[in-house]
Each structure stands twice: as C-alpha cells, then as structure tokens.
Design brief:
- By secondary structure, the chain is an alpha+beta fold.
- It has one domain.
- The protein is 22% helix and 28% strand.
- It has two helices and five strands; from the N terminus they run αβββαββ.
- It is globular.
Length: 109
Amino acid sequence: MTQTPEDSVDIDTIVKIQCVAAISAIIGVSICGKNYSLKAKQVRMADISIPVVTLLARESTPEETRISPDAHTLFIEAAKNLVAKNQIFYTALNPVWAFPYLLWENADS
C-alpha cells in the first residue's frame, strides 16, 4: 500500500504517548481521507511475529530524541494493514531501549 495525501497521523503525539509509558491510548488516523480510531495498550513483552514500527532515529538518546524520518510513513502503512486486514502492530521508541512497546488495535471493532 502506498501513502496518499489523505493519509495522516500525529506522530509527535504517538512519540509522547510512548515516552510517558502510557498504559493505553486512543488516537485518530486518516487513511485515504477516512478517519479511524486506533487503540494502544502497553506491553512488556513482544511477539516477534508481529510487525514493529520504530519511532525514533537510530542516533536518538533518552536525553535527545529525534523522530525517525520513516516513522510517519511506516506507522501509516501499519495502520492501513490494521484497518484493511486486522493486522495488529507494535510501536517502539527504540527496540533496544528498556521502554515498553505499544500494541495497536482497531478501536472501532
């Protein structure tokens, strides 16, 4: 699936949710101009068969975070797969950091 101009999500908010280690969250995402609600819940262990979207650039540190240039596109692609195929996914600030992952599901189902 390719990203269209009608695809949007506030990736800064998702990073903030992840940084504060929120237990759960609901966000809005626009895919092909249609709005969807996605819900996330914190998990401490990840299933390696589920895709992971890394939010921060490799050079980020806990003191100085930089959003990965691909984070928005990868999140939108994962959200499209969630909406179209019910394929859940994780987000991680950086997979090697000791921060919990968020598991994303369709809030509308």
